[in-house]
Batch of 2 targets.
Target 1
Amino acid sequence: MKVKAKSPKAKFGLPAVFLLCSLFFFVGLFTFTLLSHVSFPQFLSGPRSVSRTLQSEDGEDHGPMPQGETGDSFIQSIPFQVLSWKPRALYFPRFATAEQCESVIEMAKTKLRPSALALRKGETTESTKGTRTSSGTFISASEDETGILEIIEEKIARATMLPRTHGEAFNVLRYEIGQKYDSHYDAFNPSEYGQQKSQRFASFLLYLSDVEEGGETMFPFENGLHMGMSYDYKKCIGLKVMPRQGDGLLFYSVLPNGTIDQTSLHGSCPVIKGEKWVATKWIRNQEDLE
Ligand SMILES: O=C(O)CCC(=O)C(=O)O
């Protein structure tokens, strides 16, 4: 006698089938929710579209706020890395494009002169010979018909929130092998330089080229290091920032209380191999009207 096989429906009954279907549905729903919140590594998820909104840690999207008269209607991101708090120094990778950097070098190339120094009381060109051996030139954004310096200047103003009108013209510098700038302060100490109309408050360096070896911007007193001992101002020590074309370095020479930050002492190590090009923008605490 043939035994008739029972159908699953008959075996488990309708409630069991319903339970199974519900289970599949909830597992599917849970997996979908999880995947849509987890950010996969770029190489797994493929190219992402750039969103104008910011995503906070709770996953909420934040759109732009209603802006004031002088503000923006969009969110902009300028990536940076805090390099140090003493001095306050920030690094901005890929601040300018390679093409922009090459154009600035081209603008400066034919105008280079030996770099000069602001002299302290009692110093002469002769007594300071060898302190700063680069060549350079000043170029203001208004002189640049390509508009590149204006774009860079505008971006510096946004990154620092220090108005463009407070910035001096760009000092474009070239260091050849062996050339350097011994450690110094950008801010003017009135007891050494006499009373000034305004103070150099912050400095923004845009590296226009890579350097094969040497040429780092150095901060020998970073975090108070080497400050107690008698430091040889020619020595290339402390925090060293390797120039990379298009990257920016910002540091503040003046503390929030208005005094000169003693740890903002800095210089350029000698170039050992290759050539270094950099554009410095000194930003003052008053509008720069000259
Ligand atoms: O070339 C550098 O890295 C430093 C330049 C500098 O110290 C300056 O322009 O004040």
Target 2
Amino acid sequence: MPPTFAPWRFLVRRSRRLMAALLVLPLLLAFNAGAHAAASRDSLTLLVPDGASLSSWQVQVWTDSAAEEGIQLKTITDSAFLALGARAAGTIAGLILPDSAHIQASDALVAAVKQYVSGGGKLMLTYDAGALTDNGFYSLGGKSRFSDLVGVDYVQYDLLRDRVVGFGPIVGNKGRMDNLSLPPGKYVPYAAPAANARAATSNAVFVPTNRFDPGGSQFMRAIVEARANGISTSLARLSPATASASQLRYDLNVGNATQALSQLLSQLLNFGNTGNSLRQTDDISAVVNASGTAWTENPPALTPSRLASSDAEMQSVSGYGFGELSYYHFVTTGTFPGNVFLSSPSHGLVAGERAYGSGKVLFVNIPLGFFKAIGTDGALMHGFLNHFARDQVAMTRLSVQPKGIGGLVYNWHVDDGDDVVPDFRNIMAQDFMQNQGPFSVHFTAGPDVVTPGDGMGMNLPNNPAAQDVVLKTGKFGKYARASGMQHEIGSHGGWNHDLYGLNATETNAATYLPWVLLNFNALENVTKTPLREYSAPVGNNPSWATRWLEQHGVVGMYTVSNTGAAATREWRAGARLTDKLWAMPIAPFGKSATFEEFDLNGISDGTSAQWLVDLQSFVSNNRTNRLFYNHPPGAMAHLGVVKTFVKRAAALQAVGRFDWYTLAEIADFSQRRIQTNWSSSTNALGLTTFVASNPVSLTDVTWMLPRSAYWLPVVTGGSGTVSVTDSTHWLVTAKSGTSIQFVALQR
Ligand SMILES: [Zn+2]
């Protein structure tokens, strides 16, 4: 008889080993008292120049973003780093050289960074870090002194002059986009220009640079800010006319630019389809039918193979309202001796990883910090931070979600009279909507919608039917004890939807702030409760309005900034706008974000339903949050898609893989979570002790320990649970209290 497969044997062996670990635990803990505890491996380190201000945007945008993503990040000065010498590799788990903050670097510092990597360190080297010497000159070698570390040459001013920095789309395969935390729809299929078009014209775009602006960020600032304000919609692929109008240069490609795109294509072929998958074996995915009215769940074990061919498709990073976006980056030359993540069709390597000595370097040839702090475009920064912490350093992180359960905010914008009754009322009365949610439902309450006196608004103060919808939706007044889901009510703009949305600017607060107050007052007169959520009509949210909202106690708002990212605190023009008010970017689907735009852009129900289902899978697999918004008439016209979206959510919820969240819930949890203090130390036997506290409460705060780095954790103090269902992480969730302690043996 052939030997039969006995899975229980495997289980027994595993649990015995586990038992052994548990039995020796007291011994290991006892040893801890006397042993010298090694430094934490659960924090990244940001290298900043001596004397750098930690509150300058160039530094703070990194510390803020890391905190928002649940990643511990310390700063270290050049002097302190140099003083570590050869001990740096054993002391610092992952080192980041930021863009914009560290353009100048001494030869000694460059050498020390290389020594760190060579000795086993993990480095994320960002854009213009070290582009100039400590005296502010280009390196005499004619290229960045980090070129040999990265493996391609860049910052080649003597050689390339006006073509040092290129501008154009950034391209990667879909699986990599997902791995970089870019949700489906934050990229569009990449269409290569026809070969003859490429050869016939000099169609490459360049950013003028010099040693006072070696990465071109000062030059690009006005253009990037215009894009942030939605002014220039033509910045996707620049036409020659736009390029010359913006004083960008239009020139021949650099002939020997790194062929990163073809290298990426051959990487995909070499590994074969599933062997190259970046998916996990517990990742979920589903396929919808052509009409978008039904879906079929893929078994998680089959997800990597089912998605293999679409994961290999080439995509360009895109933005809401724009479609394909261009970014600027150093032209690289030479063949990259590593794994290409993102590439430029014209200018070479945009991001990639490479082994160097005993360590590894992740080169990100984009000014990530600049794009978040100045350009309100933070998805790439958050994505690369996540990737570096999770996949390169393999460190423990906090999940951004309560209990680590990913989910979506379903944000309803009820703009006018028809929208509330009959549309919203009728949608919420549908069978499939019963007890689903909670959703974030925002109302524009004034009598007019476009022009004064048009009478198209809901006129909430004088509209009993609309008042009834508000009360029922938020379970206020006579509905306080009624059964059914309690949704979160929010304010949508300034009383007259379009008039405010199209005319409020940074300089006319005196005219338009009273309209914001009118809208809040009208709603709060009905709910008798202060509102905690807001969405700006047409996405137009001037700084004065945002500041007023925070003072008024609003904790969560929708935003068209940072599209593709999870909840964040917004930056504008190099300053963080709020302390406690969290902004949730809309999830874009290419140029579109909601049903009316899908109609406008010819997106079928089957396609939009597939995107919504993919978005659910994305937040579930990545244990993160994103926001989808719609209007009642748009939803009414695509009810089959809405039904699929809501019913699949319920199915995923039933197995603990998804939750709906309101903006206020995400904001409250995020604000409490970032106040968590935690640290870890490891004794000589490899036992790591994690200690955490929170001034308010640790309830639902969740640590994700990489299985590749730790054996099963055990809670040794406070109240918490350990989940073993994730294929790549152990999840430790605090149940209550303000402190917790747990231990895990390093592998
Ligand atoms: Zn609206």
